[in-house]
Specification:
Helix content: 55-70%
Oligomer: single chain
Number of strands: 6
Strand order of the largest sheet: 1-3-2
Structural class: alpha+beta
Distance between the termini: 69 Å
Length: about 200
């Protein structure tokens, strides 16, 4: 890995610390006055250095955006100092609803209710309140139902860099294959039922 100036690393740490939220790679490269590969290499170097030094700070990546955060090892102490830093409590119904949205996204309430067999209003509203899911828009069908997907906060909460990391390669391939194949209802419309 190439050597980087200590000044570049100091600038990067200062910018990420001041931002307090994820900063896109392109913005970081702009601030450093370098190209994207150089900025990415510098960030990778920083992340490795934090791990090697067992630093209380770590560098997290979420969808090509980077953020400084504390090492989860120190969460109990931070929670005692900052009670508002406590994580949301995810009950079994919330976890089930979140899993359905994460795997099926974009997902509507009707999809969630069909899978879980119960009304999804409370669970969806709670997950929105926790900022673990977001509204992605509306489905172009009767009633224009809202479609939901996971948020950046979801990735941070569970420690994933992006949705692909969460889903895994195999599941991503399954989803891509499913998208390419016509749905059962479409197949039924294509070929009329045969008479016996």
């Amino acid at each position: 890995m190439p050597k980087f100036s200590l000044e570049q690393q100091k600038i990067l740490e200062a910018v990420l610390f001041a931002a307090g939220a994820p900063v896109e790679l392109a913005r970081l490269a702009e601030v450093l006055g370098c190209n994207l590969p150089v900025a990415r290499n510098l960030l990778a170097n920083m992340a490795e250095q934090y791990i090697a030094e067992e630093s209380p700070i770590q560098l997290m990546e979420h969808d090509d955006a980077f953020q400084l955060c504390t090492n989860p090892k120190y969460y109990p102490q931070i929670a005692r100092l900052l009670p508002t830093a406590s994580k949301p409590t995810l009950t079994q119904p919330l976890l089930e609803t979140l899993a359905i949205i994460a795997y099926k996204q974009p997902a509507t309430k009707s999809i969630i209710e069909e899978i879980r067999g119960v009304n999804a209003d409370h669970a969806v509203n709670k997950l929105l309140e926790y900022n673990l899911i977001i509204e992605l828009g509306r489905l172009d069908s009767p009633g224009k139902p809202i479609i939901f997907g996971t948020s950046e906060a979801f990735l941070r909460f569970f420690g994933f860099r992006n949705v692909e990391d969460f889903l895994g390669e195999e599941l991503n391939k399954e989803r891509e294959n499913a998208d390419e194949q016509p749905q059962e209802s479409e197949k039924a419309q294509e070929s009329p039922p045969q008479e016996l």
